[in-house]
Amino acid sequence: MNFHVLTLFPEMVAQGLCTSILGRAVQKGHISLETVNIRDYTTDRHGKVDDYPYGGGAGMLMQAQPVYAAWQAVVNKILGKRPAPDPLLPNDKTGEERRIRVIYVTPQGRIFDQGLAQELAQEGDLIFLCGHYEGIDERVLDTIVTDQVSIGDYVLTGGELPAMVMIDCISRLVPGVLQNEESAEYESFHDNLLEYPQYTRPEIWEGKSVPSVLLSGDHAKVDQWRLEQAEERTRRRRPDLYELHSREKNAYAFLEKDRLGHMDMIEVIRKRQAEILYAGENGVLLRDLPSGAWMISAADMDMGERLLSRIPRDCSDPLFAVHQPFLRDSICRRFQVDEVNACHQAVYTRKSPLPEPEGFQICVPNETELDLIREAYGPLEPEEYLLERIRLGKMLAIREQGNLAAFAGIHAEGSMGMLHVRKAYRRKGMAAALEIRLINMFLEKGDVPFCQIFEGNQASLALQKKLGLRLASGRVYWIS
Q1: In terms of domains, do 217 and 252 share one?
Q2: Which among 132, 153, 107 has a CA at the least distance from the CA of 39?
Q3: What is the domain count for the chain?
Q4: Considering only CA atoms, which of 244, 266, 254, 252 is closest in space to residue 192?
Q5: pTM of the model
């Protein structure tokens, strides 16, 4: 993991992050930290980087030119040190620049939390942009920033301290940074629970004893005690977190009864990209935030109607993924939609990666190939959606003699999909090569590979069985 911080005070960032655990992680090569002085990139001969805002107002504003030039220098450096060939890099430089996450530290942004930290820890490079004065010219923010993030609803003198907080949190999730690999997983905010109380020697201090269960040597009892303490502490101190934990716990309890059939819902919850609106012993209603899809499963029609009543009838451009035919029928009546795709759900349940076939150079498609992808894939997805998938690096392609031959990708809600081989290039193993690469990418991130296949697509079903994926007994109905 490589951190790049664009700042007017590089010494402040470097001194704050190059000690203790993070300092050792830098020395061992688990993470790297580069601080870039924005002032070094100004064209003003006096080193000026700010000016008065147009329209008047208090304070000064950081200018676009030095910020953009500093960012461009970092991007060029990142591109220059990438290993080659890297199948996740597109051929055109513009596509790569859009993919490198640039986090602008601002109180106007999304609140930073453990879920976002886990997401950002999957990146190879992160660029943090630290503002000062009254902010930064909006034009450069629109040009380079991918994420606006805040650490809380208060105002600081600059973005350096929030950037350092985020880098510290993200670094703890990078393999090798913590000596005890379990400590990043079992600490505050894991599973929406505060950390359980902990004790060390002496056994009795000021008349207060260590809880006897911790001295018992019974690891199962210790784990149970810690969970109970974490739940009780969270209930008392953070009832808001406890409510989220309870919903998540109830959702898992219902969905795990048919793990293969519900893998789509389980994964969006596990990856912290779901808003759980209801979870009980007879059903779950959630909304996947990246795709906006309402995802529903119910034990019976009565519970299904109760869950559907929680969805506004006037929601615009509704998209649903449901797991029972009676929900499918109710949604079509209630929301007057009739575009229904019944899908088999296939899940790769093993932990070991698949050997990748040789002879294929897998890359990321170019934006210029969007028309070919759109033509081959048909009207299944909007053009804007496919373009987004390309720009985010969520699509892979195989070329033969410079021509786009096959492509596949990862949908917004986290499933493998969009797999297509153009007619002239079929029966060469390209579909298997692309899906194997996707499966291995999922496993590297600790995710469960799964996909959904339209009913009647016998070729794709045969491919899933060949690659070792297991088919759920039921169906997933996508309705729009």
Answers
A1: no
A2: 132
A3: 3
A4: 244
A5: 0.75
